[in-house]
Design brief:
Length: 656
């Protein structure tokens, strides 16, 4: 392909041919039936809004769209905690399990029924009330994966106090930035958490953050370990101390009536460089959006045991561990620790123990399991699994097929769900039982979601071509802005095309109308005038039987504009060799074309990733061009990229 196809702004090169039509037995019993696609925006969401959510007063208008702001379920009054907890108990399902929780130390397990959850939430809400928290008081939550984290979120929702959850791996600076931006008055944390057998000093980090966050008047500390921490008089209080004399009677703390458009939470998302954005999510539309998508996309049944293995600190955990599943009254699994503790089969032991039927995770985790090898999964009975999901990054077809075969044993539909913190809910996804699956494609927009691929000029790119993903109609869980920053909201999402939501991802649509996500637009490479997406070259690399994981980026090149540099992790900890390097270049050349073969390949045991597991190509570009490294504060482990930078500098020296 020497010239750009007319009207397309990113070339598409890698054609995946495998197809997985829905098994007929699955299709028959599926929550989503083909008529789901026949309903109009208004009608679909009116029905779902009435069906999935209990309203204190019904809404009188489905939505109002005054770009760039939408409102949903106008006039409706409800409470999210009531929907997620109380109504299930009132309906006689108090004994149903809400969460199976497993601590990282293996002997620690807890089972919380919906009645238990209600008692915990009511007690904590009563505790927060004692601290002066009421409707509108901003609360920050900085915890690990303990049941008290959803309890704290739901207690806030019960009182109408908006929360922001800060992922427990963030530093003191990141924590205080977020707390300051929201002007939080209370911080809920724990003394320590567990991660891969190590103690995470959450309270100590909170102390450092609070030194720079004067708005915080009170700090509640849940005691997770026996570790000692400093407690400042008048500010810090132990969780159990606060709850000593409070009631767990739901009538002692009724669910606050909220307007459909009242703030439920802010969740901060860092762009690639600038200051994190406080993404605004409100009440009625968000809850309806996450409950509806959870029901159809995962084919959740009344007796399902559903496990989303994300961290609650990310949007995936907000929408698909806490709010969506609990609104649907689903039994969930929450696991505190890492997948390789004490050994690499920990996840599969959990699936076997609780007979998990739906598992939702990220490509980065799947690639880790792939790297470790399928023998860990083989040790366990995974026959309870019915549906598998992925989210967070484009998934390489080989990783998809590995997941389908080794975890799903070839039986379970894999739903590759595309969405963002900003969208609040799943937007492009297969519907199991309806959709023919294609490894690497998120397939079709969820019913009523009006997604398209545009070129620079704002024209739809014809089938097969690549361009910018956009969404043209509002959806119920969409962000309602960036906290305190209207201008940035407009500039980031609404300025490239008039009244159209600009996603920031590249995508292509194929002849069947299926979407293929091509990664963040900032990562696109330009080699000899070809605009090439990172995912396609990476997928060609991962397609090689020895490769577990790969990340590519462009570095400046005198002749070709940019040249591709690949960072590759081999399976089973192999180190790589000049022969392997040659073999991989030939492999990519055969899969895509010689022009896309990486100019350099660097073998590395790990890739630099954000704390939510996304590959950070921006830093790889710095490494590839021997520049000073940019901001590394959002990395899970900065040693990985520092080591790569060091090797890069040494090689540059030897070349001189
Ligand atoms: C990427 C996570 C391809 C994408 C819910 C998006 C994906 C960003 C997929 C949002 C997917 C998420 N296929 N890319 N299935 N899911 N992404 O805000 O680049 O953490 O814009 O939300 O992740 O990440 P966020």
């Amino acid at each position: 392909m020497s010239e750009q196809t007319a009207g397309q702004d990113i070339e598409t090169l890698f054609l995946e041919q495998r197809r997985y039509p829905p098994p007929p037995e699955f299709a028959k019993q599926a929550n989503a039936q083909p008529d789901i696609h026949t309903k109009k925006l208004d009608e679909f969401w009116r029905e779902e809004g009435e069906k999935r959510v209990s309203w204190f007063s019904p809404f009188d208008q489905v939505y109002e769209w005054e770009p760039p702001y939408a409102k949903w379920f106008l006039g409706g009054k409800l409470n999210v905690c009531y929907n997620c907890v109380d109504r299930h108990v009132e309906a006689g399902r108090g004994d149903k399990v809400a969460f199976y929780w497993e601590g990282e130390p293996e002997e620690e397990r807890r089972t919380l029924s919906f009645a238990d959850l209600q008692a915990e939430v009511v007690r904590f809400a009563n505790g927060l009330k004692k601290l002066g928290v009421e409707k509108g008081t901003p609360v920050a939550i900085y915890m690990g994966m303990v049941p008290e984290l959803p309890v704290a979120m739901l207690a806030c929702a019960r009182l109408g106090a908006p929360h922001t959850v800060i992922f427990g791996g963030f530093s003191a600076d990141s924590l205080s930035d977020r707390v300051n931006d929201m002007e939080c008055e209370v911080l809920v944390t724990q003394n320590e958490g567990w991660r891969r057998g190590n103690r995470v000093p959450l309270k100590k980090t909170s102390d450092e953050a609070m030194d720079r966050s004067p708005s915080v008047k009170q700090c509640v500390v849940y005691r997770r370990t026996d570790g000692e921490v400093d407690m400042r008089d008048g500010r810090d209080l132990w969780w159990d101390q606060l709850l000593e004399d409070v009631s767990d009677d739901p009538d002692s703390c009724p669910c606050q009536e909220m307007d459909s458009e009242d703030l439920l939470y802010l969740l901060y998302t860092s762009g690639t460089t600038a200051k994190p954005k406080g993404i605004v999510h409100t009440t009625g539309g968000y809850l309806t959006g996450v409950a509806t998508t959870h029901h159809y996309v995962f084919d959740v049944k009344p007796d399902s045991v559903y496990w989303c293995a994300a961290d609650i600190g990310w949007v995936t955990g907000h929408s698909y561990i806490v709010y969506g599943p609990l609104c649907n009254g689903t039994t969930g699994v929450v696991y505190e620790g890492t997948p390789d503790f004490p050994d690499k089969d920990r996840w599969w032991a959990i699936v076997e123990r609780y007979k998990v039927d739906i598992l939702y995770t990220a490509p980065t985790a799947i690639r880790s399991h792939m790297k470790w090898g399928p023998e860990y999964a083989k040790k366990h009975d995974l026959s309870s699994l019915r549906v598998l999901g992925t989210v967070g990054e484009p998934i390489n077809p080989e990783a998809w097929v590995w997941y389908h075969e080794n975890i799903g044993r070839g039986r379970c539909p894999v739903v590759d769900t595309w969405w963002q913190t900003e969208t609040g809910m799943i937007m492009i996804t297969p519907l199991p039982g309806i959709t023919t699956l294609k490894p690497g494609s998120a397939t079709k927009p969820f019913p009523t979601v009006d997604a398209a691929v545009f070129n620079e000029k704002g024209e739809s790119v014809p089938p097969g071509g690549g361009g910018y993903l956009v969404i043209r109609e509002p959806w119920p869980a969409m962000l309602r802005g960036i906290h305190k920053d209207h201008e940035r909201y407009v500039k980031t999402y609404w300025s490239k095309y008039p009244n159209v939501y600009f996603v920031g991802d590249g995508a292509r649509v194929d002849e069947d109308g299926d979407f293929w996500l091509l990664g963040r637009i900032d990562d696109v490479m330009n080699v000899s005038g070809h605009r090439i997406s990172t995912i396609e070259v990476e997928s060609a690399l991962v397609d090689h039987p020895r490769v577990a994981e790969a990340a590519v980026c462009g570095r400046a090149d005198k002749t070709t504009g940019q040249a591709i540099v690949a960072y590759v992790t081999l399976k089973g900890g192999d180190e790589g060799s000049p022969e392997m390097l040659r073999e991989l270049r030939i492999h990519v050349g055969q899969r895509i074309g010689k022009f896309a073969a990486p100019a350099n390949i660097v073998f590395t045991p790990e890739l630099p990733k954000t704390r939510s597991g996304k590959i950070m190509r921006r830093l790889l570009r710095d490494v590839a061009e021997n520049r000073e490294l940019g901001d590394t504060t959002t990395l899970a482990d900065s040693a990985v990229v520092e080591e790569l930078a060091k090797r890069g500098r040494e090689e540059a020296k030897t070349e001189e």
